[in-house]
Amino acid sequence: MKAIRLSLPCIVSIFLLTGCWDRSEINDIAFVVATGVDKGEKNQFLFSLQVPLPSSMGGAGSSGGGGGTSGEGPYLVAQGTGGNERQAMEEIQTKLSRRVYLGHRRVHIIGESLAEAGIKKTLNAVFTQPRSRISTFLLISKGDAVNLLKTQPRMEQYSGEGMREMSKNSLNMTVRSALQDLYREGKDMIIPMINTAGTTKTDKTKKEVQMQRFAVFKDDKLVFSTNKNESAGVLWLFEKMLKKSASFPVAKNEEISVQIFENQTKPKLKIVDGKPTFLLTVKTVGVLFENEPNYRIEDPQTYRLVISKMEGQIKKEIEAILNHAHSQGVDVFGFGWYLFKYKHQEWNQNWKNDWRTILPNLKVTIKVDADIQRSANSGIVEKE
User: Fold this and answer.
1) Exposure b/e, 338-370, CB count within 10 A at least 16 = b
2) Are both 219 and 246 inside the same structural domain?
3) How many whole angstroms separate alpha carbon 36 and alpha carbon 49?
4) Would you say the C-alpha torsion 131, 133, 137, 139 has a positive or negative sign?
5) Percent of the chain residues topping a pLDDT of 90
6) SS3 at position 71
7) Residue 274 and residue 269: Cα distance in Å, rounded?
8) Is residue 20 part of a domain?
9) Are residues 212 and 157 in the same domain?
10) Same structural domain, 47 and 115
């Protein structure tokens, strides 16, 4: 009897320790690094995904990466169609020998035509897809998203990795951040926009990706994309100019360039005659990197001249994006969200329902406090 009692735990453990019953081998999985979704015909979705090809990526003991089968590159781009993104992805699965896995997705791209129609469904789809990360970077493509997945950047083995690095240096906009902006009161989404490009003006292959504009949304629909000045204003507003260069003219056909290492933006609210007004203070500090006119900024008069030019340029860029957005009833910075947080009762009673009609006349004063602490080029000629 004692022997039976001693052996019983061993017998039971035989049935419990039977090994992994739901294993997934690496060579049975298609690791998706980037996805794209476009608007199809008759309310259909065109869902695309990018999967690196292990046999073409290179590794230890190999001759290196690049050069996929049939010269198509070290990745696969597959596309499916469906009434929703899940159906489209299931169609892709019928074409692949490996199971699609979204846990390593880095970038999700939404096509321009779909963005104009509304992106709420595709954002919610990312949130509900199994093993999908809402920390995935979000981008809007100029044209169809699938074209960005098909590009072959020369500095990366596949475009998904390049777009990920570019997203980190831009607004760092993720699906989580976009969903938060979508459901916030008094705040509209602004998402980096990406397009195909060549490395030179004469390069017509357009194998590279370029990120220099932003897509501005009203609710969940794309209303306009920014120009050069407006794009710079976006970066100043959201404190994303760190380690970036800002150039501004100081003389005829001559500019000064500064690398920014401090960028702060602080709003201050004041109620005037029952209407909200804002003072937006932008503080920035940089290092002088390019000095075309060879100014000696150690001279107080010359320094004040350079700083005034710098502050004027920054103010002009911020006003460009705010004026354009507010004229269309779009709150890119989130002044309404500020009122929601700090003047909640007044927001609900006086401004919430009419905020989009209030925005075109909202008074926002921009104050720029710039400084250049040290110079990489002291200059050789003093000018005024």
Assistant:
1) bbbeebeeebeebbbeebbebbeebebebebeb
2) no
3) 6
4) positive
5) 66
6) helix
7) 12
8) no
9) yes
10) yes
Q: Is residue 206 part of a domain?
A: yes
Angle made by CA atoms 205, 211, 212, in degrees to the nearest 5:
115
Contact (CB, 8 A) for 169 and 190: no
251 in the same domain as 160 = no
SS3 15: helix
Dump pLDDT digits (tens) for 134-170. 999 999 999 999 999 998 888 888 889 999 999 999 9
- What six digits make up the tokens of 244? 């970036």
The contacts of residue 271 (CB under 8 Å, 6+ apart) are 277, 343, 346
As given in the structure block, the two tokens for residue 344 are 């909640």
Same domain, 93 and 133: yes
Least confident of 15-19, 29-33, 84-88, 309-313: 15-19
Measure the N-to-C terminal CA separation of the chain; round to a whole number of Å: 105
Residue type present at position 370: A
Domain residue limits at 366 = 227-384
Domain identity same for 213 and 310? no
Residue (of 327, 319, 248) closest to 289 by Cα position: 248
For residue 298, CA distances in Å to 184, 213, 374, 380 come to 47, 36, 9, 12
Same domain membership, residue 242 and residue 383: yes
Query: Do 66 and 157 meet the contact criterion of CB atoms below 8 Å apart?
Result: yes
Residue labelled with tokens 């008759």: 42
Containing H/E element for 146?
helix 145-150
Scan for tokens 């009609």, then name that residue.
357
Task: Give 56's contacts (C-beta < 8 A, 6+ positions apart).
Answer: 65, 66, 67, 68, 69, 73, 74, 75
Number of domains in the chain: 2
> Quick one: pLDDT at residue 71?
37
pLDDT of amino acid 221: 97
Could you give phi then psi for residue 307, rounded to 5 degrees? -65, -40
Residue 62, pLDDT score: 41
State yes or no: pLDDT of 68 exceeds 50: no
Taking the C-alpha atoms of residue 74 and residue 158, their distance in angstroms, rounded to an integer, is 7
Residue 382 maps to a domain: yes
